[in-house]
Design goal:
With 171 residues, the protein is mostly helical. The chain has 6 helices and no strands. The chain starts with a helix and ends in a 12-residue tail after the last helix.
Length: 171
Amino acid sequence: MAIGILTLVCGLIAGRFSHPFGVAPILGALLCAACFLRPRELFIVGLCGILIRDLFVGLEPFTLVRLIGIALAAGLLVVLKVRPSFRSMMTGLLVSSPVFHLTLAVGDWWTGTCSILPRTPQGLLTAILQGFPYFLRSFVGDLAFTGFFLGAYLLAATTFWGWKVQEQRES
C-alpha cells in the first residue's frame, strides 16, 4: 500500500510542475524508497511514477528516455545500498541525480524533444551544457523532495503505525 501511495503521489506531483520549472519529486521518492523498500519495489516506484506523470501530462517519445533515466538512477541506488542516514542519502543523490539528468540531456539530443541539435559530438556537448541550469534547479528540488518524503514517512510511521523515535543518549 505504501508503494502505491508513494508512486501515485510522486507521479501526480511531477505532473503538476512544468518542465521549465525543473522540479519533480521522482528522485526524492526513489531515495526515500531506497531506504525502506526492496530493490524491486524501488523500480516500481520510479518507473510507475514516471508513467503516471506522463499519463497526466501526455505520453510522448521522450517518456522512454525518462524511463531509462529513472531505471539507471534506481539501479545506482540499489548498488549503493542507500540507507536512512545523511551520508548515505547524500551519496545516493550526488550519484543518481547527475546520471538521471545526463540521460535526459542525451535523450533530448537524440530525440530533439526540447532542442534540435546536430547529432555530432559538438551537438551532444551543447545539449549537456544547455541542460546544466535545469540540472542545478532540479538537484535542489530533489534534495527538498527527499526531505519532504522522509518527513512524511516519519510522520506517518509515528502517527499511524505507532513507531517510536528512539533518542540516542550519550553514556
